[in-house]
Design goal:
Helix content is 0%, strand content 51%. The protein has no helices and five strands.
Length: 65
């Protein structure tokens, strides 16, 4: 798992987000964008660390069995 605080964390939930992230200096924007936990499985969404990140993110819960 990556280090750093993500913009979004979901646990057994759905989320759709469109967002803009700006780093105050080159390389200062966070690389770890989101963590989705569903049914005990952890997935991460990361981007290359840069100065600007524009994201469209969607997390879906696992269907109940």
């Amino acid at each position: 798992m990556s280090t750093g605080v993500p913009c979004f964390i979901t646990q057994d939930a759905s989320l759709s987000a469109s967002y803009l992230q700006y780093g105050h200096a080159p390389g200062k924007a966070r690389a770890r964008q989101a963590v989705a936990i569903s049914g005990g499985k952890v997935e991460e969404f990361t981007v290359s660390p840069g100065n600007l990140a524009v994201g469209l993110y969607s997390a879906q819960t696992s269907a109940p069995k």
